[in-house]
Fold:
Amino acid sequence: MNNILDVKNLTKVYGKGSEQKFVALENLNLSVAKGEFVAIMGASGSGKSTLLNNISTLDVPSSGEILIDGETLIGLKGKALADFRARKIGFIFQEFNLLDSLTVYENIALPLSLQRVRSKEIRLAVKRVAKLLNIEDLLQKYPEQLSGGQKQRTASARALVHEPALILGDEPTGALDSKNAVDLLETMQTMNQQQGVSILMVTHDAMSASYADRILFIKDGQVHQELIKAQNETNQAFYQEVLRTVAQEN
Ligand SMILES: Nc1ncnc2c1ncn2[C@@H]1O[C@H](COP(=O)(O)OP(=O)(O)OP(=O)(O)O)[C@@H](O)[C@H]1O
Ligand SMILES: [Mg+2]
Structure:
């Protein structure tokens, strides 16, 4: 099994019963290989968040199949689904979603605490990711005492602490200024290259997308174009390519 993610003929129709129907995704197919960093681009309303929410199991497909590490999500419910999600996936949102009443340490530890990992192991794991994300000095602070960039690094540490096989990000740099965005993207690229974590990141920003190995463009609920970064191609060169493609798309 060489893919961490396979999405097969995924269709998502919003609107139940007599409500107005809206087809957000229609027979969408994509795969992410193990160790790959893939970005998803597309106009507002093209279905990017819908796609990520279905992959992350926050939402349920109307039809089609999603395999994570070769395992189907269909039929997984309740605790089995929660366990599967907790083990395999890390999620970085645009709005950080940190819990204000918990310290940075406790926020990062949360996925492990929920899995009842022993506190000694939790301490080691939190230290490891805090070092990776350069937030070791912030562990006793509360979210309200942090800058936006520090909050996002805390949220990234939480997404990574249980060593998920796949990280999903929905506009993870969306609420950051350009310096903090670059810091986060470089960290994600490092995690991808050094720890082998696979990443699927939604972004409308060409600069952010240029950190990925491959970019999928979504339109009308389907993948309609793909850009692949050449071996040894710099992010800068890839960025120019992305800009040209985005210009054609619009
Ligand atoms: N719960 C819902 N009920 C009905 N329609 C919805 C719902 N959620 C999303 N949609 C519609 O589905 C389409 C895709 O929405 P989605 O949030 O996936 O877009 P997006 O690509 O993430 O956009 P953006 O770049 O603005 O975040 C939109 O037209 C949206 O209005
Ligand atoms: Mg969205």
Summary: Helices lie at 48-55, 78-88, 104-114, 119-132, 148-160, 178-195, 206-209, 235-249.
